[in-house]
Amino acid sequence: MSRVTVHLLRHGEVFNPEGVLYGRLPEFHLSERGRAMADLVAGHFKALADGGAAPVYLVSSPLARAQETAQPTAVALGLEIVTDPRIIEAENHFEGMKVSKAELLKPRHWPYLANPLRPSWGEPYAAQAERMLAAARDARRRACELGGDGAQAIMVSHQLPIWATRRSAEGRRLWHDPRHRECTLASLTSLTFDADDVVGVSYSEPAAVLLPGAATTPGA
């Protein structure tokens, strides 16, 4: 069977001076650091191309920060950006707010905190993993059509959907402590497929040099 790698790329840092959880809100764009992160990722993939292992298919979430992260890689590899709404950020009740202990203690939020394992404040982890894996399998098929055995694809998405997908692919429980996600800005969570089955997961940080001092807004 053909093996294909699908790289789940988290977007770069976003300009968010108010520190809100921006979720699916429009018009949140990359910061200057975020654009530099996107350039580093493009350089990473260009180096793969120069070594004969170029990704042949590029997909992005419809949100601005993901599209802007994808753009330098599209230019570097000469690829079109295909937009897939299935890899958008998770829905979240707290979208547009500064999430703090004081905010969480307000009674109007209590019904949304009833079940942190689902979670009750937003899209279920299982639903996120399901839609992301469906999109990844479609990206795998398209990459295989374009590049054959050993082909690669890139999906530019968001931290929580990527993390839920990784945990699902690794057979781990989906509920978790958000502070312990291994999915930094502009990182790659790479799924190796044999046909439609995930047979390997790896992680790398091509923009690691820019992480010190970067924003750490939860869920960003």
Automatic annotation (TrEMBL):
GO cellular component: cytoplasm
UniProt-recorded Gene Ontology molecular function terms: phosphatase activity
One Pfam family, short name: His_Phos_1
UniProt protein name: Histidine phosphatase family protein
